[in-house]
């Protein structure tokens, strides 16, 4: 589904990604973890072209992300993206937030878009909030709306960039529960997160990054059982305790 080969990226003279390679199969749940500034968010943003890269190759469902001829808007419509700060339109109701992209990008009728959007709003447990504005919802509710909005576009894969890091601790589980449900339904997911409980529960693959390099690229059991690098062991010890 997603193939990343020898990807490197620079901001000016500063290299943020160095020869990163991994692949994500259909139905995989891949957790990307590591210390702040290790390149995790940059890596998943290269997958849908939100961050350009200077070297290497990324293909999504056989489409080359770095090819100048690729229609990135069309590609992004097929890859759901959930950011840490929700990115909902504050001046639109929840229902309008859910339908706008479907109408403008996918060409759906308002009726069709509304039906699809409300189906996923119900899926995340917020159907009763459809006429409210984002500012009237809690952070956890807004993030669940953001997930519903991404799902309304019928994505082939979902990218999550630290989806719980801006939330109060009490709201984290309501978002993680939705993500666990998606994983169990077979959604292909790449998730940047520090939530190791989530990783233990649903990930089948873990990528550990440090200083722009993929240090560990292994199964969940290998990562939590016999991580090979001192850096990953040190990170796990700090974050779990």
UniProtKB/TrEMBL annotation:
Q: Which UniProt keywords apply?
A: Amino-acid transport, ATP-binding, Cell membrane, Membrane, Nucleotide-binding, Transport
What is any one of the record's Gene Ontology cellular component terms? plasma membrane
Similarity comment text for this entry = Belongs to the ABC transporter superfamily.
* Classification via Gene3D superfamilies: P-loop containing nucleotide triphosphate hydrolases (3.40.50.300)
Indicate yes or no for the key word DNA-binding: no
Quote the InterPro entries the UniProt record gives: AAA+_ATPase, ABC_ATPase_HisP-typ, ABC_transporter-like_ATP-bd, ABC_transporter-like_CS, MetN_ABC_transporter-like, P-loop_NTPase
Give the originating organism. Answer: Noviherbaspirillum humi
Q: Does the keyword Transit peptide apply?
A: no
UniProt GO molecular function: ABC-type amino acid transporter activity; ATP binding; ATP hydrolysis activity
**Can you say where in the cell this protein is located?**
Cell membrane
- This chain belongs to the protein called L-glutamate ABC transporter ATP-binding protein /L-aspartate ABC transporter ATP-binding protein
Which Pfam family, any one of them, does this sequence belong to?
A: ABC_tran
